[in-house]
Amino acid sequence: MKKNLLKKVWKNNDGMGTVEMILIIVVLIGLVLIFKTQIQELAGTIFEKISADSSAILA
User: Fold this and answer.
1) Could you tell me the mean pLDDT of each successive run of 10 residues in the chain, 59 residues long?
2) CA–CA gap between residue 54 and residue 7 (Å, rounded)
3) How far apart are CA 36 and CA 27, in angstroms?
4) Using CA of residue 47, residue 52, residue 56, residue 59, what is the dihedral sign?
5) H or E segment to which residue 55 belongs
6) Beta strands of 1-59 (E only): which ranges?
7) If we measure between CA atoms, which residue out of 39, 16, 18, 44 comes closest to residue 29?
8) What are phi and psi of 35, to 5 degrees?
9) pLDDT at position 10, please?
10) For the chain, how are helix, strand and coil distributed in percent, rounded to 5?
């Protein structure tokens, strides 16, 4: 009886999608924390260029 129960638990993949999504989110959060300053600098540069280009269009 225990052997059949273990086989059912082992073959049950219902929660695998949830676990995979949680692992992907954890990895992404880790990458964001590691590269936080580089992401902030890149975003700042992009917004400065957008601001400069939009003011040139409006002028």
Assistant:
1) 70 74 95 96 95 80
2) 62
3) 14
4) positive
5) helix 36-58
6) none
7) 39
8) -105, 30
9) 66
10) 90, 0, 10
d(CA 52, CA 18): 43
Burial of 36 (0-12, 13-18, 19+ CB in 10 A): exposed
pLDDT of residue 15: 66
Q: What's the start-to-end Cα distance of the chain, in Å?
A: 79
Q: Structure tokens of 47?
A: 């917004």
| pTM above threshold 0.85 | no
Whose tokens are 């949830």? That residue is 18
Predicted local distance difference test score (pLDDT) of residue 18 = 82
Query: What are the residues whose beta carbons fall under 8 Å from the beta carbon of 39, sequence distance 6 or more?
Result: 32
